[in-house]
């Protein structure tokens, strides 16, 4: 994750969002996305700003009616991924538009799918089904039009005194997923472990800058993890040595203040907010959701390309349980026993 620039002295809100994709499937990686913004012209202690409003008219929540529209939809990935089946790239149009434009604003180019995964930091390991030849991006539209749209987004951010600092994805492919499930005992613990990694990255990169601007520190928003509403104990494990104070725990939201003293008077701080449907209330969470989903879909495109090359005519899969069982049946004569053990998530 990029480190903050030392010349940024004016107080600013560091606003991060985290969300996952791929919790339920039997095939493919679990992905946790994180996006981080710096917001100036912000009053310390004030609620996080509505970035949809700040970046209007370039950014919107609802998908534009035309694929050639000059607005970028950012919302829960489940609302923006098209209904086309596995392997149909049209379903990814809104996801790749938003993620590629945001990455461009953060200083990263992604002309191919493997370059996109590298820009996001999504590591899929050495399984051969992820090692296929690169595919040019964007999958929908053309690169010059996307570059123009990214420029429009950058201009809107400058007008609103907003910077996109980072868009990242923590990816856990099948074998590593199974190993962590065996070590930690549950899929929920594995998923929260990736969320914890993303929280620590934001804390380590921007916690000091944020604490200097406001005692609340980095604003980290996470979608609610299952049905639980208490996270203080988990956060003490995420931030060892820090003081975790519970500000609110309710059905509506759970909020915590995390603070850590440092040498020479430097300190880090964060306010962690966990709430249901956070993608609808916080643009950084929505973008994180889209990045995680896009990374997983790109991974599954590579997965399907590998197996279709090995067995022509094999119908692609998105990896969810019912269709994964169909796919495993159809692909049975092309998969060795060792490969099946490697590629099937056991939980």
How do you describe this structure in short?
The chain is of the alpha/beta class and 347 residues long.
- Name of the level-1 CATH class: Alpha Beta
Query: Based on CA inertia axes, which overall geometry fits?
Result: globular
Indicate the low-confidence ranges by residue numbers: 2-8
In terms of quaternary structure, what is this? single chain
Note the run of SSEs as H and E.
Answer: EEHEEHHHHEHHEHEEEHHHH
User: Roughly how many Å is the radius of gyration?
Assistant: 20 Å
Can you walk through the features of this model?
The chain is an alpha/beta fold and 347 residues long. The protein has one domain: 2-Layer Sandwich (Nucleotidyltransferase, domain 5), CATH 3.30.420.10. The chain has helices spanning 51-54, 77-80, 93-105, 113-120, 143-160, 174-184, 187-213, 232-238, 278-281, 283-310, 321-330, 337-343, and strands at 13-21, 30-39, 59-60, 72-73, 162-172, 218-223, 243-249, 254-261, 267-275. A 7-stranded mixed β-sheet has the order 5-2-1-6-9-8-7, with helices on both faces. The longest helix is centred in the C-terminal third of the chain and has 28 residues, at 283-310.
């Amino acid at each position: 994750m990029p480190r903050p620039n030392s010349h940024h002295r004016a107080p600013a809100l560091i606003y991060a969002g985290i969300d996952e994709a791929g919790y339920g499937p039997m095939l493919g990686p679990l992905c946790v996305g994180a996006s981080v913004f710096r917001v100036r012209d912000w009053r310390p202690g004030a609620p996080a700003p509505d970035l949809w409003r700040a970046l209007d008219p370039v950014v919107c929540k609802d998908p534009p009616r035309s694929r050639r529209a000059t607005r970028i939809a950012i919302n829960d990935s489940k609302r923006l991924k098209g209904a086309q089946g596995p392997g149909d790239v049209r379903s990814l149009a809104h996801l790749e538009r938003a993620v590629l434009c945001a990455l461009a604003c953060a200083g990263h180019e992604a002309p191919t799918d493997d370059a996109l995964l590298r820009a996001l930091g999504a590591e899929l390991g050495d399984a051969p089904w992820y090692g296929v030849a690169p595919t040019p991006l964007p999958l929908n539209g053309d690169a010059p039009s996307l570059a123009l749209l990214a420029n429009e987004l950058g201009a809107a951010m400058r007008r609103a005194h907003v910077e996109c600092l980072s868009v990242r994805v923590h990816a856990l492919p099948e074998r590593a997923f199974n190993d962590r499930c065996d070590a930690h005992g549950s899929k929920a613990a594995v998923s929260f472990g990736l969320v914890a990694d993303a929280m620590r990255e934001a804390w380590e990169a921007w916690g000091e800058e944020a604490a200097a601007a406001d005692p609340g520190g980095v604003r980290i928003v996470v979608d609610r993890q299952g049905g639980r509403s208490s996270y203080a104990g988990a956060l003490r494990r995420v931030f060892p040595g820090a003081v975790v104070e519970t500000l609110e725990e309710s059905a509506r939201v759970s909020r915590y203040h995390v603070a850590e003293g440092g040498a020479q008077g430097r300190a880090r701080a964060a306010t962690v907010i966990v709430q249901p449907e956070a993608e609808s209330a916080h643009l950084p969470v929505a973008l994180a959701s889209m990045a995680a989903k896009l990374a997983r879909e790109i991974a599954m495109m590579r997965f399907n390309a590998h197996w279709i090359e090995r067995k022509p005519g094999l119908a692609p899969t998105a990896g969810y349980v019912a269709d994964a069982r169909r796919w495993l049946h159809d692909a049975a004569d092309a998969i060795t026993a060792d490969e099946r053990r490697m590629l099937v998530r056991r939980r």
